[in-house]
Each structure stands twice: as C-alpha cells, then as structure tokens.
Amino acid sequence: MFYMYRINNYNDTINLKLENMKLLRSLSILIMILTIGLGAVSCKNVSDADIQNEAQAALNANPDLSGVMVTVLNKVATITGTVEDEATKSYAESTVAGVENVVSVVNEIVVVPPPPDYSALDNAINAGLADALKDHPKVTATVQDGVITINGEIRERDLQTLMEKLNALNPVQIVNNATVK
Description:
By secondary structure, the protein is α/β, with parallel strands linked by helices. Helix content is 51%, strand content 23%. The protein folds into three domains: 1-44; 48-111, Histidine-containing Protein, Chain: A, CATH 3.30.1340; 119-180, Histidine-containing Protein, Chain: A (2-Layer Sandwich), CATH 3.30.1340.30. The strands form two sheets. Strands 4, 5, 6 and 7 form a four-stranded mixed beta sheet that branches. Strands 1-2-3 form a three-stranded mixed beta sheet. The mean pLDDT is 87.
C-alpha cells in the first residue's frame, strides 16, 4: 500500500508539472502578444510633415515668433527667421524642442533688434529747423529718422554758416542736395 501511494503521488507530481508547463506556455504567449501589441501602438510612425505642422502651429501661437519658420527632416527641426532679442530666440528653440517626436533643434534664427525710434529727435530738429533756415529763403529741408536733407539753392559763402546751424541741431546726418551758386 505504501508503494501505491508513492505511484499515485508520482503521477500527481507529473500531472502537476504538466499543468504548470501548460500555464507557463499560455502566460508566455499572452506576454508576447501584449508586448507586440503595445510595441506597435507606441511605435506609430509620425511623419516629418506632421511634426513640422505641429511645431509651426506652436510657433504661430506666439505673435513674437511670427518671423520664425520651422522645417523638419528625420525628426530634426531647423528653425530660421528673425527675432528682436536673444530671449525670444531661446524661447522659439524651447517651444519647438517641446513638440512631441522632435529629436533635436538646429537654431538658425538671427537676432535683429528693432530700429531706433527717431520721432523725439525728429521733433527736436524740426523745432530748430525754421530758425536755422530763416536767412536762406531758397533752401528747404526735410527731417526723417534724424537725417536732415537740404534742397534748393545756396550761395557758397552761406553754405558753411547753414551747415554749422544744422549741425547744432545734433542730427544723425546731413544730406546736402542743395545747388551751390
């Protein structure tokens, strides 16, 4: 009887091992299917054009970046254009770098500061211009961006005096288009 118990116990052990092997095989197949399925979903193929459109939309959301364009090749974004300062240039780069699937950013943006505002200087020059020209009735002058442009006729002996009066107004430049007689 002891012998029978051992045989039954041995058969039970073999059956248990077979069941465990079947379970292990089923679990392995399930894990493999899940791995392949999740891998396929997470590795969706995103085109450079899709990335470029998303990056350009992110740039267009900020009016300070209206002069910036992006191109994407092999998930590398290249940004070009002009901005007014270094902070805006850095912001454009970080904006594009934050777009999903962008691997790296090549920043070719050029910083071009805005032109100076000469309106106050123009007003100051115009205020003194009438006095400088009062002794020269055949001479006219215009002022734009701090530059005085004179036209008309002037005698040679009066030219130096006029130029001294105009220089006293501290212009950026004086353009002499007057005819000297």
